[in-house]
Design a protein that fits this description.
transcription; globular; alpha+beta; 47% helix; 290 residues; Arc Repressor Mutant, subunit A; 4-stranded antiparallel sheet
């Protein structure tokens, strides 16, 4: 028996691209849908109300609500179709009343990409424990959006979106924040020492006790995580991505292979192909549900 969340169940997920002028005509369905635009521009009508989505915008479609969409340019979006319990739907009423808004927080934006990566992992390895984890993560993202004071400004939830969130278990580690905010810059132990007024030996010990890794290992993993997002969701060259996340070209390929067991180009091809249609409920037929 596969265990799923009792309040939200993902049916299908995609992280694929769409060509300019691609169009889905007006329709409705009995489940809920969330679209997060990564790149490009989308025209969407919800209940006959038109909106224009730009990168980092979210559109949230209620069940049985008519909607249609098309693209003004080549675009890429994360699309999630899911079911909600009556209780959770009632709690999320405010989100559905104004269904289009922008996500400004970089860590929260990155968490959407991580969802697709984990869904691909489930599809590859069929680990049933990942399913309920994915359901729960989408539920938490919706609740984060709900509880923000202004939907155009999403709260900074580092503990829920960090690569090391499970290890931290809700605790705050300022040196990790520093690395996550400055990963694209040149960072050394000397720089961290100057910033936090600890000796290099003390810093190494604090990272070991808190995250069970050295500061440079932590920095590498943060950079790799951001590189994976860029490889999957942009067409930037490998060299440009390396520089954007703080690596030199040659060193980037070596470190990426160390953590992901494949070179960046192969990862990009594989992830883009696998992101297209990820069915997380065997009874769901995407061919009958646009």
């Amino acid at each position: 028996m596969v265990l799923r969340d009792s309040q939200l169940v993902i049916l299908w997920m995609s992280g694929k691209g769409y060509s300019k002028d691609f169009e889905i005509k007006q329709h409705r369905h009995d489940f809920y849908q969330l679209q997060y635009l990564i790149a490009g521009e989308e025209n969407i009508a919800i209940n006959q109300q038109p909106y224009t989505l730009k990168p980092n915008y979210i559109a949230l479609m209620d069940s049985y609500v008519y909607h249609s969409y098309s693209f003004n340019k080549a675009s890429k979006l994360i699309d999630i179709k899911f079911n909600l319990s009556k209780e959770l739907r009632h709690l999320l009423t405010a989100l559905f009343e104004q269904p289009v808004f922008v996500v400004n927080d970089a860590l929260l934006r990155n968490s959407f990409s991580q969802l697709v990566e984990q869904a691909v992992s489930y599809q590859t390895h069929e680990n049933p424990e990942l399913l309920i984890d994915l359901d729960t993560q989408v539920k938490l993202l919706l609740l984060q959006l709900l509880h923000t004071s202004s939907k155009s400004t999403v709260p900074n939830k580092k503990e829920s979106t960090s690569v090391f969130s499970e290890i931290l278990n809700g605790n705050h580690f300022p040196m990790l924040d520093f690395l996550e905010q400055n990963y694209s810059q040149e960072i050394t132990l000397d720089l961290i020492s100057q910033e936090f007024h600890y000796s290099k030996g003390q810093i190494i010990k604090m990272f070991s006790e808190t995250l069970h890794q050295t500061p440079m290992q932590v920095l590498q993993k943060i950079r790799i995580q951001h590189a994976k997002y860029l490889l999957t969701n942009t067409d930037f060259s490998i060299g440009k991505i390396a520089n954007m996340v703080g690596f030199s070209d040659n060193y980037f390929t070596k470190i990426f292979f160390k953590y992901e067991h494949q070179v960046p180009n192969k990862y990009r091809l594989t992830s883009k192909k696998m992101n297209d249609d990820i069915v997380l409920n065997t009874s769901f037929d995407i061919s009958t549900q646009p």
